[in-house]
Amino acid sequence: MLRFFAAPEQFREDRVYLDNDEAHHIKKVMRLGTGAVVRIFDGQGREYEVELIVERGAVWGRIIAQVPAVREPELKVTLAQGLAKGEKNELVIQKATEVGVQAIIPLICERSVMKLSPGRNKEERLRRVAREAAKQCQRSVVPTVEAACRIKDIVTRFSLYDTVLLLWEEEQACNLKQTLQELRQKRAIKQLLVLVGPEGGFTAAEAQEAIEHGAYSVSLGPRILRTETAGLVALSAIFYEFDELSL
Ligand code: SAH
Fold first, then answer.
1. Are residues 228 and 118 in the same domain?
2. Mean pLDDT of 176-180
3. Do residues 53 and 59 make contact, with C-beta atoms less than 8 angstroms apart?
4. Of the candidates 15, 42, 67, which is a domain's last residue?
């Protein structure tokens, strides 16, 4: 069944009002008319079966029923992604959304090619990528793309997570699998933060700061992965380890 997005504030009692983008998609691309029954998700985990009313000026829907959101992982993983060049950030957000990430925090590192925060328009573009990816992979949650921050800022938020993993190519002792298995024996892990460096990698000082604040440094093996590969490999391995890639 076709799926469209509407933010929570677009729902009012038993009705939902589609924004211009979705109205255009419904009318001009999918050529749907009044009476068509579709799914509408609110990006916060709720999904509804809706009968569309297609008018000249607007498209809205009458809610038939709420439907269970069956595609969301139990494990909530936030990916703090070292800012990368050009389209790489969009690629990471799209793929991380498909794999099941809960939130993405653009990380500004010493060696980030993009020194500054991406700026409002770029952040809006990244949010749109997350929304479109959630729509395509049939998730009812749209991962949040938070404001960009630096290591010194994000370490103050580590206590919000059960575990923080630092993907560190210089790590010589601990690998991801062993670390996850050991941690799972000690505590329930519901909220996980994964830190990935930029193209140039984390500086030793950045890695040290994260470790001093409680991050577990882990290796993804002997090969050096590109920044846009490393986070996705780690996310996939973590979701596999937590049985989140199962029906
Ligand atoms: N220093 C690397 C570039 C960093 S790769 C080089 O010399 O090319 C970008 C980021 O991906 C790293 O900061 C790290 O977070 C992650 N990464 C890449 N390969 C990794 C590995 N084998 N183990 C752990 N993390 C890795």
1. yes
2. 94
3. yes
4. 67
Our count of domains for the chain comes to 2
CA of 149 to the centre of ligand 1 (A): 19
Which residue's CA lies nearest to atom 1 of ligand 1? 201
Q: Under a CB-based contact definition with an 8 Å cutoff, are residues 218 and 104 in contact?
A: no
Q: Which atom of ligand 1 is nearest to the CA of 200?
A: 3
Ligand 1 contacts CB of residue 225 (under 6 A): yes
CA angle 79, 83, 89 (to 5 degrees): 75
Distance CA 136, CA 159 (A): 33
Supply the pLDDT for residue 117. Answer: 65
- Other residues' Cβ atoms within 10 Å of the Cβ of residue 71: 15
> What domain range includes position 191?
76-241
- The pLDDT confidence band at residue 118, using thresholds 50, 70 and 90, is low
Give a yes or no: residue 170 inside a domain.
yes
Residue among 154, 224, 229, 232 whose CB has most ligand 1 atoms within 8 A, to mutate: 224
Examine the pLDDT at 113 and tell me if it is beyond 90: no
| Amino acid, res. 76 | K
**Residue 218, strand partner residues:** 167
Cα-to-centroid distance, 166 and ligand 1 (Å):
10
Whether 62 and 80 map to the same domain: the answer is no
pLDDT band at 87 (very low <50, low <70, confident <90, very high): confident
Per residue in 44-84, pLDDT (tens digit) is: 999 999 999 999 889 999 999 999 888 999 999 999 999 88
Mutate to test the pocket of ligand 1, among 79, 89, 105, 167 (most ligand atoms within 8 A of CB): 167
